[in-house]
Design goal:
The structure holds two protein chains of two kinds.
Chain A: E1 5-8, H1 14-35, H2 38-54, E2 58-61, H3 65-84, H4 86-101, H5 106-123, H6 127-137, H7 143-150, H8 154-171, H9 176-187
Antiparallel strand pairs in A: 1-2
Helix pairs in contact in A: 1-2, 1-3, 2-3, 3-4, 4-5, 6-8, 7-8
Chain B: H1 11-18, H2 24-36, H3 38-54, H4 65-98, H5 106-131, E1 135-139, E2 145-148, E3 154-157, E4 162-166, E5 174-186, E6 195-199, E7 202-206, E8 210-215, E9 219-226, E10 228-233, E11 236-241, E12 244-249, E13 257-259, H6 267-270, E14 272-279, H7 280-291, E15 295-297, E16 306-312, H8 316-327, E17 331-333, E18 338-340
Parallel strand pairs in B: 5-6, 15-18
Antiparallel strand pairs in B: 1-4, 2-3, 3-5, 4-5, 5-8, 6-7, 7-10, 8-9, 9-12, 10-11, 12-13, 14-16, 17-18
Helix pairs in contact in B: 1-3, 2-3
The chains are: A mainly alpha, B alpha+beta.
Chain lengths: 188, 341
């Protein structure tokens, strides 16, 4: 499973088109769940491919191409945050969210707050942890499928998912008790 | 497994169960543990809230990978063009360093374009020979260019345009892609191998003929000069003969052909502007495109006055002078626009 290989991407090649269209939906989803913006998410994916091509198209894949591209999108998003001064963005995001929920019940306002905090906490997960979480949550894959796609063991997938959820729980400790039984009914 | 002692439980197992990865036995065990104490239930629910809430972050809109790929290809073309300009820029520095070489005129400029094209061709050659890629690019920047394909077909590519084509036409069809801009095609007849031009969502099919294709982003315009052409988009098809045109509009499903009313579209190939009873509005539109100017008509009644003349290799100033004299109208040159009134 741990096969190291070097790929060459060439934009004039049909194979490039296939790789792009195969991976785009999942990569876009990844960037979207980081940035909460459809257009920006596409831009991040584009940047990843443009940078690969600019360096001559060479990709050194240690585990799988998918894992490589996820990592690249993850880093691209973090870079974007760095440039945009992440805190400001999150503040604006939180304010915007509050704005739309202003006239609804205070319970749902607090829920929005939880959602925002959760979003931030997920983005702060370490890369592999974030990626495994992404595949499990948003692509709804089983542990075994994730292991296959990322070229890691099922045990590693299990550990990373556990690590992610435990970490999120600790970080959201102040918000969670309020919501637990009340919210689960709404979400149903 | 009923026990007086509180059950041992760990988060890893709870999480596995939540994600449907635990065994049936483990699930049962967890269920009992949850019933044992409201605190246990609460602990489990915290994970559940995280898991369920995170699903709200998901993008649920439509994703079109093919369109996204097209947008990426445009960025790739721009990136290539920028890199080329950088190389040219460096060449410039060398010239200044060598000193006292007078600034290159038009010939020098063309030479640099030619050098850039040679570079591009060279890069293309390297690619084809080392990575066995069969697709080439014909990219123009500030001037129109002419190129001949392997089957002898001649393509005149307007400025800021991009055509992708294979170095050799294999298979039953000759296919090229007009990714951006405008081109005039003079296709070598070959009944056994029809020629297909893809642009946006539109495909143009020909056997041997000459015609103009303009990809304006939203709309695609095809004008036929000689022979017959089939234009299709999403299963809808229209046949055009010489002197006919069709404008494929993104938001309209029908393809309706019309007679072509003027010869101005040929300006970048013939280097002349032929106005033959052409409304001033249309002349201004083409001049703006050709000279990258911003001419506007200040009086509405001027828009449809017909113009009969041919401009050949003239500067925009001379062209405007002629128009001004013909119609006895004034030309007001402002910093970022020219008003005819």
């Amino acid at each position: 499973m741990m096969n190291q290989q070097t790929l060459y991407l060439n934009a004039d090649d049909r194979e490039f088109d296939r790789i792009y269209t195969d991976h785009y939906p999942a990569l876009h989803q990844y960037a979207y769940t980081m940035l909460n913006d459809r257009v920006l998410a596409e831009e991040m994916v584009h940047q990843v491919f443009l940078k690969i091509l600019e360096k001559g198209g060479q990709v050194n894949v240690h585990t799988s191409l998918k894992a490589y591209l996820y990592r690249a999108v993850h880093n691209e998003c973090l870079n974007y945050f760095k440039h945009q001064k992440v805190k400001q963005v999150h503040q604006e995001y939180a304010v915007a969210e509050y704005g739309t929920a202003a006239d609804s019940a205070s319970g749902s306002m607090q829920y929005k707050e939880l959602e925002t905090r959760l979003h931030m906490a997920i983005n702060e997960l370490p890369e592999q942890c974030r990626t495994v979480f992404q595949l499990s949550r948003f692509e709804e894959l089983k542990y075994a499928e994730i292991a296959l796609q990322l070229g890691i063991s099922i045990k590693t997938v299990e550990n990373q998912i556990s690590k992610a959820l435990k970490r999120l729980r600790v970080q959201l400790a102040d918000y969670l008790p309020l919501f637990c039984w009340f919210l689960l009914n709404i979400l149903k | 497994m009923i026990n007086a002692e509180p059950m041992e439980m760990n988060d890893d197992l709870l999480i596995s169960s939540l994600l449907g990865e635990a065994t049936i036995e483990q699930d049962k065990q967890i269920e009992e543990w949850r019933k044992e104490d409201p605190a246990n239930e609460n602990h489990f629910n915290q994970f559940k809230v995280i898991w369920e809430t995170s699903d709200q972050l998901k993008y649920n809109g439509k994703i079109d990978a093919a369109i996204s790929l097209q947008r990426l290809k445009q960025k790739i073309a721009i990136q290539k063009a920028v890199n080329l300009e950088k190389t040219e820029g460096r060449a410039d520095d060398v010239t200044t360093a060598q000193n006292k070489i007078t600034r290159l005129g038009t010939v020098g400029y063309l030479f640099r374009i030619a050098a850039a094209l040679v570079l591009m061709a060279g890069a293309g050659w390297l690619y084809t020979n080392h990575v066995a890629v069969k697709e080439l690019e014909f990219l123009t920047q500030k001037t129109a260019q002419v190129d001949t394909l392997s089957d002898g077909s001649v393509i005149t590519l307007n400025k800021h345009s991009l055509l992708r084509y294979p170095d050799k036409f294999k298979g039953a069809e000759r296919q090229v892609w007009l990714t951006r801009g405008e081109a005039f095609f003079n296709i070598t007849p070959d009944k056994k191998k029809p020629f297909l031009i893809h642009t946006g969502s539109t495909t143009i099919r020909v056997v041997g003929t000459s015609f103009n294709v303009k990809n304006k982003g939203e709309d695609i315009e095809v004008i036929v000069e000689t022979g017959m052409v089939q234009v299709s988009r999403n299963g809808e098809m229209v046949s055009l003969r010489s002197g006919e045109k069709v404008v494929v509009q993104r938001n309209k499903t029908n393809l309706i052909k019309e007679g072509n009313t003027d010869q101005l579209y040929a300006y970048y190939r013939s280097k002349e502007f032929v106005a033959d009873n052409t409304p001033l509005r249309r002349v201004v539109e083409i001049l703006n495109e050709a000279y990258e100017s911003n001419i506007v008509i200040g009086r509405k009644e001027l828009e449809d006055v017909p113009l009969n003349t041919t401009f050949k290799n003239e500067s925009l100033d001379q062209v405007l002078k002629i128009i001004s004299r013909t119609f006895k109208i004034k030309v007001d040159k402002k910093p970022n626009k020219i008003v005819l009134y």
